[in-house]
Design a protein that fits this description.
Chain C: Belongs to the leucine-binding protein family. Chain C: Residues 35-383 form the Leucine-binding protein domain. Chain C: It comes from Microvirga aerophila. Chain C: Keywords: Amino-acid transport, Signal, Transport. The structure holds three protein chains of three kinds. Chain A has a domain at 51-259. In chain A, 72% of the residues lie in helices and 4% in strands. Chain A is built from 13 helices and six strands. Chain A has a two-stranded antiparallel ribbon. Chain A has a two-stranded antiparallel ribbon with strand order 3-6. In chain A, strands 4-5 form a two-stranded antiparallel ribbon. The two termini of chain A are 34 Å apart. The relative contact order of chain A is 0.16. By secondary structure, chain B is mostly helical. Chain B contains eleven helices and two strands, in the order ααααββααααααα. In chain B, β1 and β2 (144-147) form a beta hairpin. By secondary structure, chain C is of the alpha/beta class. Chain C has helices at residues 6-25, 53-68, 88-101, 113-126, 138-141, 156-169, 184-199, 217-225, 237-249, 266-273, 298-307, 309-312, 325-339, 345-353, and strands spanning 31-32, 35-42, 76-83, 106-109, 130-131, 148-149, 175-181, 203-209, 230-233, 256-258, 282-286, 356-357, 366-367, 380-384, 389-392. In chain C, strands 8-7-9-10-11-14-15 form a seven-stranded mixed sheet, sandwiched between helices. In chain C, strands 1, 2, 3, 4, 5 and 6 form a six-stranded mixed sheet that branches. Chain C has a two-stranded antiparallel sheet with strand order 12-13. Chains in contact: A-B, A-C, B-C. The interface between B and C is large, with 44 and 42 residues.
Chain lengths: 329, 300, 405
Amino acid sequence: MIMNPITNRQVLDLPIRESGAKNRNRIISGGALVVALAVLTVVLPFVTSGYVIYIANLLLVFTVLSLGMHIVIGEAGQFSLSHAAFYGLGIYTAGLLNNAFGLPLILNIIAGGLVAGLCGLAIGFLSLRMRDIYLALSTFAFGEAMQWIFLNWTPVTGGPNGLNFQPAHLFGFTFLSDKAAYPVVLILALVFVAATFVIHFSTLGRSFRAVRESEIAAAAVGIDVKRVKIFAFALSAFYAGAAGGLFTTFSTFIHPESLGFHTTILVLTMVVVGGIGSVSGAIGGAIVFGLISELLRQVPSYQEVIYGGILILFMMYLPRGIFSLIGRR
Amino acid sequence: MELEVLSLFLQQGIASGLVTGSIYALLALAIVIVFRTTDVANFAEGEVYMASAYLAFFLIAIVSMPFWIAVPATVFAVLIGASLFQRVVLTQVAAAKGVSVNLVIATLGLSYVLKGIVRATGFGDTPRSFPSVMGEGSVTLGSASLTYLDLTILGAALAIMAVFFWMFNYTKIGRAMRAVGMNRRASQLVGINLGHVQMLVWGLSGAISAVAAILIAPKLLMTADMGVVVTLAFAAAIIGGFTSLPGAVVGGFIIGITENLVGLFVSSRAINVAPFVVIMLVLIFMPQGLFGGKVRVRKV
Amino acid sequence: MLTRRTPLRAAAVAALLSMFAAPALAQEPGLTPTSIKIGLFGPLSGPSMSYGFDVMNAARMYYDKINAEGGIHGRKIELSVQDDRCNANDLVAAVKKLVEQDQVFLLNGASCSAAAVAGKDYVVRSGVPWLMLNASADGALYPPQPNIFGAFSISQRAMGGSIVEFAVKQLNAKKIGYINHDDAYGAWNLEAAQFQAKDNKVDLVVESVNPNISDVTAPLLKLRAANVDVLLIATYARPAQLILKKAYELGFTKPQVLAVNAIANVQQLSENVGSKDAFKNVYIQEVLADKPGSEKLKWVYDMYKTSYPDLASKPDHPQVYMPYGIPSAMAVVKALQDAGPDLTRAKFIEAAKKLNFDSGVMAGPIAFGENERAAQKASIFLKFDGAEMTRVPGAFASRWTYQGQ
């Protein structure tokens, strides 16, 4: 029973008979949500503090990282645990190029992505023979070894002191604050989002997923499995490296401590909790988990227990991720 | 380098390496039995090990239980706890039909929860130990010296491994575990209760970790972060082939010795990265490890 | 439309508005005529929480005391507290939240050096004054920044130089074994140690290990084989205890000196190492004014017990570094007082630069200068036999100075 707001009389709650109307409502409300989010995103710097924009910038970087992880694990089914290493390569490359040559931001980001991508290519090559747990363990070991290199190659990376870089600049404009960097970070992140959707619906995406489902079947239909796997690694690493370059837009310091296994795991959980295999899942997972992580900082005593508890509960009861609740992928 | 110094370094490095290696071997064993029977890479292994140490510490130092009661109590408690985790959480995760990585993430969740609980008790901030049950003193073998505690650790670890292998190879329950490890469906067909075996294996894995923790805590001191040795245990398991139990044990000793030899002959800075380099080299050039069979193709 | 009533009404409105305008006209954020907002931050959770949890509590109890005594020039201190989890990203988030969201007047925080350095660029750019808690944070203090002050415990440069000086002058060492970590801390203390060794014309044999090391056989065996006269241990607590144990096992009887960051809890140290014989030749560096448990520092521990009775009854509280919060809070309060009732950030910074006082808690004075941003540089040395500590007389100063790299 519902109340008629005009007459205040009770009215029978009749079911909507037309499914067409239901779908239309869904699309309208989905579209309204997207528009609302878009407006919010654009208006944000004008209505909140630099701190909130800093968090937004970090979330955008994590979104790109998450999309990269999605490509290698979600699309291609390759269990790669060296994400933080590629991210770190991107940050150091972009930062060092900026310090040395003062190149514009976009070039630094691309360079960061390329260096990481090349490394990813090599890793992809070496890992052709490995499956599942062995692949996971060797990429994990590679990630740890890279962190050790970041920490000990002091002349280049600053070693345990960390590395300071000059503020990034683009078209003569220098980014000196989070709010200044935000529009660029947002636009670039959206470019990656769009690219990922394009890849998802393209032949490449279908090849990735074919390899994920069954390498033998994929080979049977003429897919060059080796090439696809190597490319998945390289592309994913490119994303991570570019995310690193993006990080230098609003941050001028990096320490190897932030580039370890826990960062890779954070990104992995974003993808899994968001919904593995789903592009919007990866994006949603990045934003939700990034926010959870920052919010938990306000609950110092129990945050680790809460965080672990959330992970366990998700894995038990929402295995396909948050975004499985929201209809089709 | 003079020959005398070289010889000293080798002997001491190997001797001490065998002691810490025996602990890595136990932890690697715990990881491998779980992986073989439940297909889960247990990333919470280090935290189970750490939490066991603190539980024992709590019983001995705070509740003042005598050592000889506290130790079995701890091992038993961890055994129960680990089996329950498998039964309650992991079977649910597996039944929920997500992806296999979900199981690993569930173990990661467990590791955070355990670490958080230990930190919340306030015992974690300063390194701790148990009162030593061994007298002081050491034994000299050639140029190397090992304390009585060292020998106890090594001896106890080897004894545990021996008991375990005996159980695994000569008892009915061991046979059931091996059957599940070989082929899950087939073992169910011959009447083995899969759920029970999996629970038992997790419990056993927890118990082994607890024993390892209690043995090594007086030597390496407990902190809330002591679980990081799990990466060394994974390295050991990989060297062994990740599905071979004797391989895990040999791998543990190899890692322990390698740590010392790298520290002595390369640089102390490199000690930390050595296991990762080993993992990569083994997996690239010898993916089946030293003892593993052919790399099994799981998916078709 | 102008009427005869307009001037009166306008005046009334203006008077009303001026009541609200007064705070709004304050140029400085976090400041009202009756309050000063201070952003307190440090590790409240995570693996390194023992470096800062009780340090923050100590600062807080000191501020409570000042408030109870009437505040500073009529203003009471209000605290806005954030957890930095001892890592770079979270520290930056904490700082940005405090400065931009909570609009604090000044920052008082940071117990973890590597993380603190991450906040440097933002704080310099925003101009907010920042007095650290117990972080050494050499990387943020050299070269000196206008608004960043730190090393209230001791800078790592001062620590490294001082411990080498002790080894040379007190223990007559010609060849010194030095074990430190391969992290930022380690790099800073090593720099000063090497400088001091060179200046004293002695050899320094260095072994750098990872804080997570399990088997210390390798570095110790090497140093013993190198025949060092003294072993300086500049690691964190757990590795330091392992080193003492292993040194004893390997029959190393030369003097061993534990740097201040190597000591978490002296009683635990003794218990964990196990044997009293291991302490035949062990010295401890301390940056507090006197040995722990002494009369001099009793007031700090008593104040902690009264302020936090629940915490004080839990095991391991107060945590070891608790007293370090006092000199930092004292410095904040003194600078606020010296800056006068007409308070601005600029005046506060000028007053901070001129600080030079004895906190009664630390081994040396808290002193800054036009180009000096590290507060405390002195340390004392105690001989520790496993149970008792005896003060070794003498001052052993680090001679490292910033070379303008």
